[in-house]
Specification:
This protein is of the alpha/beta class. It contains 5 helices and 5 strands; from the N terminus they run E-H-E-H-E-H-E-H-H-E. The protein has helices spanning 15-22, 51-59, 74-87, 102-112, 117-128; strands at 3-8, 30-31, 64-67, 92-98, 139-140. It has a 5-stranded parallel beta sheet with strand order 2-3-1-4-5, with helices on both faces. The protein starts with a strand and ends in a 12-residue tail after the last strand.
């Protein structure tokens, strides 16, 4: 039985860093920004350009991981549950949530110095207002580069 790990968090939370770590143990796909460049710019889970390959890999029993800021929306998470469980019978879904810590995320966004940092900050601010981590779910601390070692 394959496992799909879904990583949820604000921009700057550490989703990409975690996916890099997960790539070592995933036998299938690892996809950052799952909804980026979706067909017809649709928000539907099935409109992702990665959807067909992801379903194929999961049906073959390969573990996969996806991440997207859109998964901070509870409706989007429910859609992920519904669609993947329907299209991949027996699938195990693991959810990984990063804390809703806007200040720490904004600090990471600024530290990166990305050309679209202002947009990322606005997105983080907007999503933070509605991002609710499910009751009982553990939340990872926001990634901090100073806590990482090149030797790890």
């Amino acid at each position: 039985m394959a496992t799909l790990t879904v990583v949820v968090g604000l921009p700057g939370s550490g989703k990409s860093h975690l996916l890099c770590q997960l790539r070592e143990s995933c036998t299938g796909l690892t996809v950052e920004d799952y909804h980026k460049n979706a067909r017809s710019d649709s928000s539907l889970v099935t409109a992702s350009r990665h959807y067909a390959d992801l379903v194929r890999a999961l049906r073959e029993g390969r573990d996969c991981a996806i991440a997207d800021v859109a998964f901070t929306d509870r409706r989007r998470r429910r859609e992920v549950e519904k669609v993947f469980r329907r299209d991949v019978p027996g699938l195990s879904l693991d959810w990984v949530f990063f804390a809703n810590d806007l200040e720490a995320c904004v600090a990471n966004i600024r530290r990166r110095g990305h050309p679209e940092a202002d947009l990322e900050e606005r997105v983080a601010t907007t999503l933070s207002a509605t991002y609710v981590i499910p009751r009982g779910a553990a939340a990872l601390r926001i990634w901090r580069p100073e806590e990482c070692s090149l030797d790890a």
